[in-house]
Fold this protein.
Amino acid sequence: MLSDLEVGQFWTFGFTVLRGCLSENEVDRLQEAHCRVIADAPVYNYFAENGTRMLSPFVQVDDAFADLIEHPGVMEAMRDIWGTECLYIAGSDMWANRDHTPWHTDGQPGRQNATLKTAIYLDEQSKGFGSLNLIPGSHHPEYSAALFRSCGYWDRGRPRLRLDPDAIPGALSVQTYPGDIVLWDNRLWHSAFKRKDGQPRRTMFIGYMPDPQDDLLALKDLRTTVETQITEGQPCVYSKEMMEKGSPRREKMAARLEELGVEKVREL
Ligand SMILES: O=C(O)CCC(=O)C(=O)O
């Protein structure tokens, strides 16, 4: 359970690190599955042609990945922070990343509603070795918009910063070890750079939104966010197999999405 101070820090700074959230067995299982699956994942040449591989969505490919969605440690932390359940929004991506990911925020700078990501790493990550870099507090809409208006530009429709990537005031490199999970509001401005040892960043990201309850604007945002993830490659939030193999927690989350009027939650 997160302490009151940890919850307060999340609201203030926009992230928390769940240390040792995954057991050694869970990490081993993920490493094995990642190794097996990433070798055949599509090459992703968005930034450069250097062999980055990325699979999105990835959770349906192996039970080890799908089990991350409702991991009890993650669910509990989100509940501690929001006072309500958080819901999987069908966004997931897995990488062997050999590129710099420049400073950016996910979506429009200054947006109001939070979306969350868990970041799961298979190696130790630190400054110079592929860590997630964050500007603490930059998820607050006014801060985010001010940063972009004063120091930003659009790159092929995506918001970036014109600042020296290595010298942004207040930026933090989040050191993690296998088993740690970073839970963060992905309105935060963030980046990650190549590892100095030439190895790829072996990472997995999964997206959530807090249950909107009776907030009609948040509800519309949730529906739109999930529906934009539904494509030919992912016709439903949960595949038939995922529903068959999932725990009661998965059934509960799927049923709640349906209750909220989200379409194409499960394969019939
Ligand atoms: O490349 C990375 O590791 C950072 C990931 C990221 O930017 C994102 O998930 O939006």
